[in-house]
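Sequence only, no structure available. Ideas?
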Amino acid sequence: MKYNSYLDGVWQLDFRSASDGFVKEQNMTIADRDAQLLHAHISCGTAPAGATLVLWLVQGDVVKSIDVTDLSEPLEYPLNEFENGKVHVRLQINGVENTVSEIYIQ
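Reply:
I predicted one. Tokens follow.
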């Protein structure tokens, strides 16, 4: 890990590499599930064949996964399937390297 912070509702994670299957998590809060989106600005500097970076959103029985390995533009994910309250936001690292991310709910 080069950098991992959560300040003013923004989770920033910057890493060179991690073991396959390594998961980093941050709890965030949904205040208005119908109006807010999860925003993810993620770039993987190195993604060998078969490597993936998966974003997980988990709240009770609701579990969503999104492959964010090759995002060409920032992700804006609707939160209307979740309830207002705490949601676990996880990044699962599977072989990607030199990754920079900024994730927030707005």
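The chain is about 0% helix and 65% strand.
Hope that gets you unstuck.
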